[in-house]
Design brief:
Elements: H1 2-14, H2 16-21, E1 26-30, H3 39-50, E2 56-60, H4 62-71, H5 76-85, H6 88-91, H7 103-109, E3 114-118, E4 129-131, H8 134-143, E5 151-152, E6 161-167, E7 172-176, E8 178-179, H9 181-188, E9 193-195, E10 198-200, E11 203-207, H10 209-212, H11 216-221, E12 226-231, H12 245-256, H13 261-266, E13 270-273, H14 286-301, H15 304-314, E14 337-345, H16 349-358, E15 366-367, H17 369-381, E16 388-395, E17 398-405, E18 411-420, E19 424-435, E20 441-449, E21 453-461, E22 470-484, E23 487-507, E24 511-529, E25 541-553, E26 564-575, E27 580-584, E28 590-595, E29 597-610, E30 614-626, E31 637-638, E32 650-651, E33 659-661, E34 665-677, E35 681-693, E36 705-716, E37 719-728, E38 735-740
Helix pairs in contact: 3-5, 3-14, 4-9, 8-9
């Protein structure tokens, strides 16, 4: 009741300008246009500067978003700040928030270019668009905190508001004057085929621009005496402009947007058409947003004299300044609110119990934006719901938390594609199958097709605690070229069968700790030698190892970080029989037993940003093998761009493009300089040095390995695309490497 009374009082205050002095009511009408609608913010800045009161707001699509937020108190300055801090690449996608995901989930998101969630056995009511819009819905929910329940938009908002959607069931216009504000805005901007429609009752709602992209008539119906309108549509497209799917969809919307346009323009008192040439509906880059807001401001400033003249028509003098609203909760993303209770909608009793116990809700008496996101992420990641919604409903002197789940995922498909100059084309497919059990269980199947064939299955239990016991089985068919000092020495073709059980698997946001037991069987198919002097005897053999692995990653970007650190440390004790290793002679025959091999490895990478675009990234890494017997298959290998790319024990080294076997003890250091050019272009300069020896005490007595590398990459939605050149004093010749796509 207190929150409702406060809203009513503020709304009354916001409207006193028109009622107290008897002036005319002013409406602002904002058109749709996708990202081009950011220009509305620039116009609103000038309206406030000129002292023009706003009594009514109507909008369509992006105009409904800007207008709806303005109506609840986000003034032009607050809107400007809000749109600039958003990660729009994330907001307009269905990706999970990397900051809230476990390391395993983050790795998967940076491996696959395409992910498709399916619900089998029943219709997916969230389907109907390439993007389901769950991240948009979450953002609207957060920004509209305090206004997310069912409301009368004319009575309960700080400025009366309305927006438009299209019901494609009967091709009718749907005007929202009440309801849930986040849902109304989401429906108004649901571009057909691009975003899934919003279903309310028997209606299937998409972008309102199809019926009324510039709703001045609605503003007039709401009592507006003066209408100020803003449109952002560009010049009509010709055939040459429509070369892709999004441009065709945009043209379909633009053609339909002409409905009622001329009639609505005729009743507008002051119309501004912002020049958005060079930008499209999906131009959500920081540079584009900055330019579009500036163009909106410049367009409005050119009409400054018209604004001053309009004040006389409104019935106010030139010195009049209306009350500039502020959000009721300007710190909506960080402040806490008292919780009076929890409501679970469309969730099984087991799922409700899981959430209550995982987050100890019986002891949680307050909530902030971070907990909201963690709750919805757990519903999607742990409980496998395709969509999840967290609403805060005012209730007495606090809020009731309403958690609403969508359909459960039955299958999630992943696809990754890459090309490089070493392995050529490679495809990796993933299949996630969540099992509907009391304790959530996920089955993850992976298939890689290419020179390194791999099939893997993981069964992961998601108990309420943060440990996730995992059982894994894998088959790999490795076709590996081994080089010595830059020359190809031999090729090994072998099959590797692997089984692993990790009963302790603590998988948190930045941190993963595993303890487990692994079995490996190596079946060697053949060895082709390019150099007869190179003799490697390999016999089929199995290994049993005890393993402990610690991984930490707080980097802000998987491939091109600018801050944070990445650490991985592992210890393995390798045996044949749980205790010892087999000793073999030069011909591969068994001659006895020895203690197992100890494998100690680590790499530590961190980033320091100097300025806004330049980053220094030092890294320390190495691998030490101890024991009387070191099976050749576990020997140290360096070369390439990434850890464990071709073989598990591989360590990258600047200047070496292929796998080179080195001594049993190696420690290395690397320094990389990363320069960002524009938004997604990167130039990388890398220098590395290493010491190697058969014994630790001899590390400083051997020749230092040195390598240098320069690379250019373009960061795309399908992974990094680029090339590198390098040179090392081990290979003594330059190499060239081309990579297209995510690494796997």
């Amino acid at each position: 009741m207190a929150a409702a009374a406060m809203m009513t009082a503020v709304c009354a205050q916001a409207q006193t300008d028109s009622t107290a002095v008897g002036r005319k009511k002013v409406a602002v009408v904002l058109s749709g246009g996708g990202a081009k609608g950011m220009a509305h913010i620039g116009v609103l800045k000038v309206l406030e500067r000129a002292g023009i009161p706003v009594d009514i707001v109507t909008g369509t699509s992006m105009g409904s978003i800007i207008g709806g937020l303005y109506a609840i108190g986000y003034n032009a300055t607050a809107l400007d700040s809000m749109v600039r801090v958003q990660d729009w690449g994330y907001v307009i996608s269905d990706r999970e928030d990397l900051r809230r995901q476990s390391l395993g989930d983050r790795r998967k998101q940076n491996t696959y270019a395409l992910t498709l969630g399916l619900t089998l056995g029943r219709k997916d009511m969230q389907a109907g668009g390439f993007i389901k819009g769950k991240n948009l819905a979450e953002l609207f929910q957060q920004l509209c905190t305090g206004y997310a329940d069912s409301l009368d938009f004319s009575r309960d908002l700080r400025i009366p508001f309305a927006c438009v959607a299209t019901n494609i069931v009967d091709n009718s216009e749907v005007d929202f004057h009440s309801g849930r504000l986040p849902q109304a805005m989401r429906a108004s901007m649901a571009i057909p085929a691009a975003f899934s429609p919003v279903r309310i009752g028997d209606m299937v709602l998409v972008d309102g621009g199809l019926k009324n992209n510039y709703p001045a008539d609605i503003a007039r119906q709401m009592g507006a005496d003066i209408i100020i309108g803003v449109t952002v549509q560009g010049a009509p497209k010709v055939a040459e402009d429509m070369g892709g799917a999004m441009s065709i969809i945009s043209q379909i919307v633009d053609v339909n947007c002409k409905n009622k346009y001329d009639e609505n323009l005729a009743i507008t008192d002051l119309h501004m058409q912002v020049d958005t040439k060079g930008y499209g509906s999906a131009s959500f880059t920081p540079a584009a947003i900055d330019t579009l807001i500036r163009r909106g401001e410049e367009t409005a400033m050119r009409r400054w004299d018209d604004f001053i003249a309009l004040k006389q028509r409104i019935g106010i003098d030139e010195a009049f300044r209306p009350t500039i609203l502020q959000p009721l909760r300007p710190h909506v993303m960080t402040e806490k609110q008292r919780v009076t209770g929890y409501t679970f909608e469309n969730m099984t009793p087991q799922a409700e119990r899981f959430i209550r116990q995982k987050f100890h809700l019986s002891r949680v008496d307050s909530i902030d934006a971070q907990l909201e996101q963690e709750l919805t992420t757990a519903m999607r990641v742990d409980l496998f719901y395709q969509t999840a919604d967290c609403r805060l409903v005012p209730n007495g002197d606090g809020v009731r938390v309403v958690l609403t789940a969508g359909n459960r995922k039955s299958v999630q498909l992943h696809a990754g594609f890459r090309y490089d100059t070493e392995e050529h084309a490679t495809v990796q497919l993933g299949l996630d199958i969540p099992l509907k059990t009391a304790i959530p269980v996920n089955t993850d199947i992976t298939l890689r097709l290419g020179k390194r064939l791999m099939a893997r299955g993981d069964l992961t239990i998601h108990p309420r605690s943060f440990t996730r016991p995992t059982l894994s089985a894998a088959f790999r068919r490795n076709d590996v070229d081994i080089y010595m000092k830059g020359d190809r020495a031999y090729n090994i073709l072998y099959n590797q069968f692997q089984g692993e059980f990790a009963p302790l698997n603590f998988d948190l946001k930045h941190f993963n700790l595993q303890f487990g037991l692994r079995w490996d069987f190596m079946h060697y198919r053949n060895k082709l030698g390019a150099d007869e002097a190179v003799q490697v005897t390999l016999k089929n053999e199995h290994f049993i190892s005890y393993r402990a692995r610690l991984t930490y990653n707080s980097e802000d970007n998987w491939y091109f970080p600018t801050r944070g650190t990445r650490l991985k440390a592992e210890y393995a004790y390798v045996t044949n029989d749980l205790a010892k290793l087999t000793v073999r002679d030069a011909d591969g025959n068994k001659t006895g037993k020895a203690t197992g091999m100890s494998d100690v490895s680590a790499n530590w990478h961190w980033s320091f940003t100097l300025g806004s675009r330049f980053t220094l990234q030092p890294m320390l890494y190495g691998r030490l093998l101890f024991g009387d017997v070191v099976p050749p298959v576990f020997g140290n290998a360096i070369g390439g761009e990434w850890f464990s790319h071709y073989v598990e024990q591989q360590m990258p080294f600047a200047g070496i493009g292929n796998i080179e076997y080195v001594s049993h003890q190696i420690v290395a250091a690397q320094l990389q300089a990363q320069q960002r050019i524009g938004t997604n272009h990167y130039v990388l300069l890398r220098m590395a040095g290493a010491q190697q020896a058969d014994k630790t005490k001899e590390l400083l007595d051997t020749r230092t390995l040195l390598g240098f590398q320069a690379a250019y990459y373009y960061n795309t939605m399908f992974g990094p695309v680029g090339a590198s050149v390098g040179y090392s004093n081990r290979t003594k010749e330059p190499y060239f490497y081309l990579n297209l796509g995510y690494e796997f």
